[in-house]
Sequence to fold (429 residues):
Amino acid sequence: MLDSKYFRSELAETAARLATRGLTLDVEKIAALESQRRELAVTTQDLQNLRNTKSKSIGQAKARGEDIAPLLAEVDGLGVQLEQAKTQLDAVLAELESIIQTIPNLPDLSVPVGPDETGNQVVRQVGEPKHFDFDVQDHVALGEALAGGLDFENAVKITGSRFVVMKGQIAKLHRALAQFMLDLHTEQHGYTEMYVPYLVNKESLFGTGQLPKFSADLFHTQPATEEGQGLSLIPTAEVPVTNLARDRIFDLAELPVKMVAHTPCFRSEAGSYGRDTRGLIRQHQFDKVELVQLVQPEQSMAALEELTGHAEKVLQLLGLPYRVMLLCTGDMGFGSAKTYDLEVWLPAQNTYREISSCSNMWDFQARRMQARYRPADGKKPELLHTLNGSGLAVGRTLVAVLENYQRADGSIEIPAVLQPYMGGKTELR
RNA sequence: GGAGAAGUGGCCGAGAGGCUGAAGGCGCACCCCUGCUAAGGGUGUAUACCUCAAAAGGGUAUCGAGGGUUCGAAUCCCUCCUUCUCCGCCA
Fold:
């Protein structure tokens, strides 16, 4: 959520910056609501003040044993006036809230302006796409041919489309990838491993920005038990992990907080049917290792570079060619001020595909969550900055490993860093 | 799931319709005293918003959450949430 003070005082500037994201603000309407709010707030507070003062004098008069009837007469009607003012104020506040809650974050000034993904910039390209002297197969063909592999048919039977069953050595490779990532981030990059709930409440979804606007992208439980009522499956570990900071005030010494969690992610992807229907790329359920950092504001941009580097390290160690994209204003997510996407080379698609998205959310989520830190003893708490990034999406990493490490006979070489996690095995066949 | 008890500031803990944004203690910060240390004394110590050019000052809200009663609610009533104890069930 944007800072309402800044929002109201720099309405034109805000509107201009949001326009780069393709969003048109109804500036006049907002300004009108804002001045109404101001007026009604003052009226309400004045009435409350009057009521409090009168009530106090009634109390005092009563204590002295005086007749309070005339005082009560004075107060008569005050309650009704107050209630009216308050009702009006609440209505205006609710309208303003609903507007500001659905406004995305302001892009950082270093973000290129562009309409959609065509405006993204390649920041760097690491590793060279490997040359294959045979016809490459895609991960579906490779995975289904392996003994103990990817099984899409049975997933359809037991659940539906866009789910997968993994069996045997592929299931193990999938697990190995997640273990490898977790170990790397905890042992080399200083993150604390977290195990978190996969079902979250509305407050959490509001905190990270999924609600109220993106309810349709989520799976909501239609609960069999009362306990489950109103909970939703997490679309990313970012939700539970970042919300650990909700309603908290951190000491400066505690920052930065760096957390990593491996969780399944559930997305209904309502608008995306027809895209990537084949294979593991776009699933309703997938595993992801998520990095989250809570930092003081001055350090968030440096932290974004660091966090992106941590995600890149996974690709480097796996020997997967990739490139880093700086997303333009038109392609960024709702809460992000600046986002780098990592795109891994997929030989079968002959292109780079997103495998990680690393974002600096600035104070956008922190404001929704009231996640703060105390800059110094005795100083007022300030909003901290939150960052998150995939490190990496496990399913897509599996795709990348299968496709990039395939051999002419359909067997798969296991990258060296994964072999310890595979009981020393060097290949799948 | 059944039966009880409880949720107050950074923490502990009083308060049981008005004089309570909240006694007292601990902790913390600053100051004084003490040649060090220990002990002692003093002052201060929530958050958000509004008003004000800023500061000072003033105002409003907040005692788990939301409603209600009342001129007035931390205090009374209702609903919900959470925690604890005992029983049951379970991984």
